[in-house]
Every structure is written in structure tokens, then in C-alpha cells.
Amino acid sequence: MIRNDTAFLRNNNLFIAEKRDSWIKIFIYDIKSVAAGNDSLNFGAFLRRIRDKTNTIYFIWQDLNGIIAATGNISRISSINSDTFLTNALRSGSYKYRFITFEGKKGVEIVKCINKDQNQILRICFNAVPLYTAIKKVFFMFIILSVLILTVAIAIFMLLYNKRRIDIITQENLFNREIIKSVFNGIESPVVIFDGKGSIILKNRYFDEIEDELIRVRSLDNLNDETIEIDKRLFSVFLSNIDVENTEKVYKLAIFIDRTDRIHLEEVEREQKRQKENEEFIAEFAHQVKNPLNAISMAAQRLLSSRKFDEEIVGIIYEEISQLNKRIGEFLEKIRENSKDKICINDVLSDICRLYRIETDEKDIKLLCNIPEERYYLSIKKIDITNIMNNLIKNAIESFEKERREGKYIKILLEKKEKSVVIVVEDNGKRIRNESVKKIFEKGYSEKSSGTGLGLYVVKKIIERYNGEIELILPDTGCKIFKIGFRYGRM
């Protein structure tokens, strides 16, 4: 786009453009034709006109003898022979450029050989002030752009540096989190950290086992120091606040201690203590009653031997005293029997099977319950037989932990043998070691890493309290069988 009047050389042609209001007038001169003497267009006058209207300082057409045509003050124009730059331009035949100062004006001189045979050159000097102005603008733009680029570079560096710091901090936090998680997993009780809204921050693998059931019972943000039942087990909950610097958020640590076996053991111990107290009371009562009766009996015997009284009457007294003594014995035995519940073991086992069927189905364990139609009644508290079965069935379910095989089963059988009722709990889960059979019912012994060693100990204590028996059988088939025997009465 041509913004002002201008001139330029190209292919031995001089292009001169004059800008009008709405159009541009362009003159094209054949330099060689002009150099040959054809100046019919008054080239010299036209050069002066262009000089005055454009940014050119001068136009010079010269040869070795001097100036042929020119504009400007030619007194200061150097000859070709005296100027090495002009000599080189004449010899090369190509365009040559140089910066000069002419009459106090800075310019750019362009030299072109237009007729080598006649040693003629054309020199055009353009005013360099606009060029310098443009260069200054470019320079300032370069400075501004450099500052912007430097600013952006610093910003990018700071972002990358901060990102690196964030990555390092994040890695440290992840490392610390893994350490805490490792410590948590080493605690053989459910542990969880949560915020004030009940959102879980960190938990261990034992908490995973009770999480779903806990949420059904109680939300985390409503937990207190308390004892709650989760999945048929009793847990004591202990809460502790966690203070975090530079934050107003509230975090809590909760530890769940399984007290099921401990509570059952305490119940057994209380029941044993109560039973012992009852037995002592009964023994004392019998002693207090029998002593007078013995005295009466001895007196009656003496009366009989002396024959001072009516023998028949005294005999009746003696007989009645004997019957009374017998009745007291029967009464005491009846008290012992009535101190226990009379339950239908068929119904209790059926209820327990229905209770566990949902859980076993979810874990792909086949629960087989063989309960006969003939009804058997035991003098045992329902809660005790329930605790026994819960413990054995839970152990059986846990023995399948992390197993993904098919054919898993748990069998519950009820059968009669002479005057005993036998309950059988059989499963094909993880097998108990043969050397553990004799120790499995001892207090504190457990095959599980997280076990308390109280479950089977409590089971045996409850069974023995009712004069029952329990044994563990490990057949060659790879399963394990618990057999429980009670004396029964049929109604």
C-alpha cells in the first residue's frame, strides 16, 4: 500500500508514484533508455519535482566524467573515481547501499550501475529520518515486548516453582498419610478419622468390615463415647478430638473396641457367681431344715425303742418326717430345674438360620439347616444358646474371608442320640491346625491374628454350666465340625 509519494528501482526501471486524492499516478522510466540519451520526458526536471514531493534527498545520474543529471547541491557530490563505494558499485553491477549524511540530513543511498559500457550509475538518497523514527519505534516496541516476555517468563517460572513446591508438599502429605494408614492397619480394632460433617478422612481395614453396618445404625457425626451393637457384636466407642494448626475444621478419631466376647464372659461369670450363691443358699437352707428333722427322727427312734408311747403313732411320726425330708430334697431339685428356661431348641435354631441366611447369601456361602420336625425341649436360657450359635456361626463365616472359590458351605444339624440332643455346626472354611484342637477352648487362645481368645472359651463355659459337652472334630475331608450335646426332655 502506497501512503505517500515515493520512488524505487527495480530491474533497471525507476518507479515513481504520486498519490492523488482518490488515485495514484505511477511513472516508469527505463534507466538504460535514459542513459542512452533519450530524455524526451525531461527526466532532470522530473527528478527535481519528485525530490521536492517525496522523502528523497537527491537523485544523481553520473558517469566517470561527472554528473549527467542531478537534483540537490551537486557541489558536494563525490565523483566515481574518488569514492571506493561507487567504484565497487560500478564494477559489480548490483545494488549497493550505505548510510550517509548530506547537508545535515541522514539518509540511505542506493547505487545501481545502469550502463556498464558507458560507466553510468544512478544514485538515489532517501531521507533516513522516518527510518530512524521507525527504528526507534521498533526499538521501544522491542524493549516493551522484552519486558513483557521477561515478566511472562518470571511468572511461568514462579508457577513451575510453586507447582514443584506443591508437588513436594503433596508427596510429603501422601507419605505421612501412608505412614498413618500403616499405623492404623496395625491396630487390630476398627479406627477412623472423620470431620465434623461425618466425612471419612482416613480409616483402617478393620473399620471397612463394620462400616456399612455402622452407617445403618448410627452416622459418624452422631457418635459418642458409648457401647453400640454392630452386626450382632457389641463395640465400645472411644472418641478423641484432633487439633490441626491453621484451620478451624473439627476432626475426630474414633476407636471401636469389640467387647462382645468380654461381655459374654462377664455374663457367664455373673451367672456362675449367682448360681454358686443360690447353691450355697440352698445348701444352707437344707442344712437348717435337715438338722431339726434329724433330731426329730432320732427322738422318734428312741421313743420306739423305749416303747413308752404308742408304737403306731410314733411310727407314723417317723414316716412323716422321712417323707418331709424327701419332699424337701425334691423341692430343692425342682428349684434348680425351674431356675432355667424351658425352650424348644428346634424353634431357636430355625430363627438363627433365618437370621444368618441373608449374610451367607451375600458372601456366596451355602447355609444348610437340617432341623427335624420332632420337637426337643431343653432347660436352658434362650440367650445362652443364641450366644453359643452366634459365636460358632460367625467363626465359620470369618473362616471364608478372602476366599473366592465355589462350594463354600455351613451346615447346622439337630439330632437326637439316646437321652441327648446334639447340635452340629460344620463348615469347609479355613481349617484349624490339628495341634490346636486341645487348646482351642482355652482362655486367650485364638487361631485368628485379631482374635481375643475368649469366644470359644465363653461357649464352653456356657455349655458346661448346663452340664453339656462340646468337642471339635477334624475329619480327613478337610472340614471342621463342632458337636454340642445337652440332655433333653420331650413334651
From TrEMBL:
Protein name, as recorded: histidine kinase
Catalytic activity: ATP + protein L-histidine = ADP + protein N-phospho-L-histidine
Cited InterPro entries: BphY/WalK/GraS-like, HATPase_C_sf, HATPase_dom, His_kinase_dom, HisK_dim/P_dom, HisK_dim/P_sf, Sig_transdc_His_kin-like_C
Gene Ontology terms, MF aspect: ATP binding; phosphorelay response regulator activity; phosphorelay sensor kinase activity; protein kinase activator activity
Ranges annotated as spanning the membrane: 138-161
Tagged with keyword Kinase: yes
Domain Histidine kinase: 284-472
Gene Ontology biological process terms, A to Z: osmosensory signaling via phosphorelay pathway
Class of enzymatic activity (EC top level): transferase
Entries under Gene3D superfamilies matching the protein: 1.10.287.130, Histidine kinase-like ATPase, C-terminal domain
EC number: 2.7.13.3
Domain of life: Bacteria
Any one Pfam family match given in the protein's UniProt record, by short name: HisKA
